[in-house]
Structure formats: structure tokens, C-alpha cells
Amino acid sequence: MSKSIALKPRLNEKTYALAEKHVYVFDVDKSVNKHTIARAVEAQFDVKVLEVNTTNLKGKAKRTISITGKRMVNAEGNRSDVKKAYVTLAKGQSLPFFEAVEEEEAKEEKLQEKIDQAAAKQAAKTEKKPRGGLLRGVGKRSGARGGDK
């Protein structure tokens, strides 16, 4: 029974920030309680659930207005109600929802390190002073025209 519950993960910026704290957010059926949510998550993902918090969100009231010809139709309706479950996992356990985002961030960090190293190397090259030789630095205007002034 616990594997038959539909767990739809909510994937957005807010839930990504919560996932770093081992809290994952799911949309669940309104008739499901916390115990069955915990059992379903443990059975589907093989993890240890510490706690489950739930919230019931009422659907927003929405209007649609259509004007056809000389008639104006004003239809009112509601979005569907949603129940969200905040599932906290034990330390060291995670769910694979945001792994692609984390891999992309790791690639970006490595690329940025390479760019920083190349920039530092280029800066070190331009910072080096030319080695002084016999003819360098004798005078600014030396040669056929200038002479020393």
C-alpha cells in the first residue's frame, strides 16, 4: 500500500535550499496522513525518515472573462487544493532530485578555477621586468638622431 502513494516532488529554488538541510518537499494526496507518507518515502527511496510536516494549501480563486460578440461571460473558478509534505531525512542521506544541479555547479567551479589560474599566470607574465642588458637603459634617446639630453 505504501508504494502506491503518488509522491510528486516540488522542484524549485526554495525546495533546493531546503534539500541542502535534508528536507524534501512533496505534493501528496489530501487524504494521506504523516505516517503513510513516511512509510512511502522510506519504501520508494530506501532512506530513513526522521519527521514529516504537512500543510494544506487552498486553491486560489480565479476568474476567466470571455467576450464573444455582444455577450460577456464571467466564469469564476478555483485552482485545486494541494497538500504539501516536508520530509526530513537522517544525516548523510539524500534523494536524487537535485543531483544534476549539483553536478553542474561542480563543473562550473572547476571551470572557474581553471580560468582563475590562467589569469594569475598571465598576470605573473606581464608583471615580470625585462632583464637588463648592456645596451638597455643607457639612455632614452640614444642612436643616430637623439643623443643624450
Please, could you describe this protein's structure?
The protein has helices at residues 13-19, 34-45, 99-127, and strands at residues 8-9, 23-28, 49-57, 61-68, 71-78, 82-89. It is 32% helix and 28% strand. A hairpin with a 2-residue loop joins strand 4 (61-68) and strand 5 (71-78). It is of the alpha+beta class and 149 residues long. It folds into two domains: 2-93, RRM (RNA recognition motif) domain (Alpha-Beta Plaits, 2-Layer Sandwich); 95-128. The mean pLDDT is 84. The longest helix is centred in the C-terminal third of the chain and has 29 residues, at 99-127. The chain has a four-stranded antiparallel beta sheet.
Task: Give the percentage of residues in beta strands.
Answer: 25-35%
DSSP helix count? 3
Q: Globular, elongated, flat, extended or rod-shaped: what is the shape?
A: flat
Q: What would CATH call the homologous superfamily of the largest domain? A: RRM (RNA recognition motif) domain
The largest beta-sheet arranges its strands as: 1-2-6-3
Domains (count): 2
Number of strands: 6
Brief descriptors of the model:
149 residues; Alpha-Beta Plaits; single chain; alpha+beta
Question: Topology of this protein?
Answer:
Layout: E1 8-9, H1 13-19, E2 23-28, H2 34-45, E3 49-57, E4 61-68, E5 71-78, E6 82-89, H3 99-127
Antiparallel strand pairs: 1-2, 2-6, 3-6, 4-5
